[in-house]
Design goal:
Blueprint: E1 2-7, E2 10-12, E3 34-36, H1 38-52, E4 56-65, H2 69-79, E5 83-88, H3 91-95, H4 99-112, E6 117-121, H5 132-140, E7 144-146, E8 157-158, E9 170-171, E10 174-177, H6 189-195, E11 200-203, H7 236-245
Parallel strand pairs: 1-4, 1-6, 4-5, 5-11, 6-10, 7-10
Antiparallel strand pairs: 2-3, 8-9
């Protein structure tokens, strides 16, 4: 049976109000609650389901970042992943870590671990790039599917909802999981305790032959402009008059 890699990213919790740093170099992360990216939770759930159906023998959770990402890996282990890999990235390298660098890491690990499938969340809620999965598949020269229902073993034909394609039309070994694909399970207390005993290996990008040099430069980060309040009108004539005043018609 196959081994599956699942990417899990540590992001600012979805319920936290994002604040921009005074120097506009990024967003405030110190002292802010972090959690697993919701799309990654869906990816872990899909991988664990494959294991429960005995289509795969092992689910390996992978996360890139500083020491704190081990908490995210432990969450994946409590959900049912078998072991974790922490790719140590910190300091300036972590600040500039982007989809291309993560894709290179995932591709290198897929080869090293002899994985038959990589499952990733469609995107992360912090940068909303939606690029890592596509880049990983390209680097591995693997077929991919976006939002496929992974009810079959790695490499089998997958159902692709909302794609316009007939069912069972795509054969994939790199899958991107979108929202509403499943409902991630809650980690139970016994499984949380078991997760503490599961192994997390530490590797460095250099061990995988990956260069973390970024090709993207962030010039400035700003909050979106606040929307002005709308205006209510009583009739269509009033609406047309307002649009004329605003120069819209």
């Amino acid at each position: 049976m196959a081994r599956v890699l699942v990417g899990v990213k540590r992001v600012i919790d979805y319920a936290v109000k994002i604040r921009v740093k005074p120097d506009h170099s990024g967003v405030v992360t110190d002292g802010v609650k972090h959690s697993m990216n919701p799309f990654c939770e869906i990816a872990v759930e899909e991988a664990v389901k494959l294991k429960e159906k005995k289509f795969v023998k092992e689910v390996v959770a992978v996360s890139c970042g500083p020491q704190q990402v081990q908490e995210t890996i432990r969450t994946a282990l409590a959900m049912g992943a078998d072991r974790g890999i922490h790719v140590e990235v910190s300091g300036k390298d972590y600040e500039t870590l982007g989809p291309l660098q993560v894709s290179k890491i995932m591709a290198a690990l897929a080869k090293k671990e002899e994985a038959k499938m990589v499952i990733l969340g469609k995107q992360a809620i912090d940068d909303d790039c939606n690029q890592t999965g596509q880049m990983t598949a390209a680097l591995l020269d693997w077929p991919q599917v976006c939002g496929g229902l992974l009810s079959n073993p790695p490499g089998a034909r997958l159902t692709v909802p909302f794609s316009g394609l007939p069912e069972n039309a795509v054969r994939a070994t790199c899958a991107l999981c979108s929202l509403r694909l499943n409902t991630p399970r809650y980690a139970t207390l016994p499984n949380i305790m078991k997760a503490k005993k599961k192994k997390i290996a530490n590797v460095k990008p250099a061990d995988l032959g990956v260069d973390l040099t970024s090709r993207v430069e962030v010039l400035r980060v700003d909050e979106p402009p606040q929307r002005q309040a709308g205006v209510k009108v009583e009739t269509v004539e009033d609406l047309v008059a307002k649009l004329k005043e605003a120069g819209r018609v």
